[in-house]
Amino acid sequence: MSGRTPRQQRAVLQMLAGCQDFVSAQELHTLLLAGDHAIGLTTVYRALRELETGGGVDVVRDKAGGRLYRLRPADGHRHYLVCRGCGRSRPVNSEVVEQWAGRIAADTGFDAVEHTVELTGVCADCRPAEDEGEETPCHWDPALGPQGRVRSCAS
Length: 155
Hints:
- The protein is α+β, with helices and mostly antiparallel strands.
- It has 4 helices and 6 strands, in the order αβααββββαβ.
- Strands 1-3-2 form a 3-stranded antiparallel beta sheet. Strands 5-4-6 form a 3-stranded mixed beta sheet, with no helix packed on it.
- α2 crosses α3.
């Protein structure tokens, strides 16, 4: 990442590296402030935009259409199945999607074809209990913000 504040950008990258699941820029900003990093939300957005442009993060959308970020593994781009209840994510085998996108590019003569595949579901922890007919308490309450997202970030 380049820019005027490399120390702050490194802090964004390090905090993002500690996150196991996707996080929003606002969640990341809150975590950074809680970790005693003096950083503005604009700087967080700028760092995430640079990471995205450079292929350093994978991005999905939340229910409201907001962008969520996760550090991209060293072995490259992945697709994820994301729980609509708690936000837990899991990489999925998407080789068939990549092959399909490659065939579309070859068949149409287009270059630099990009694609977005978003898979959502409800994980076992958030799925309603069959015998009780009620929802099992989820391990993440969105109203609590990032602190309630137990599986999201190491803090």
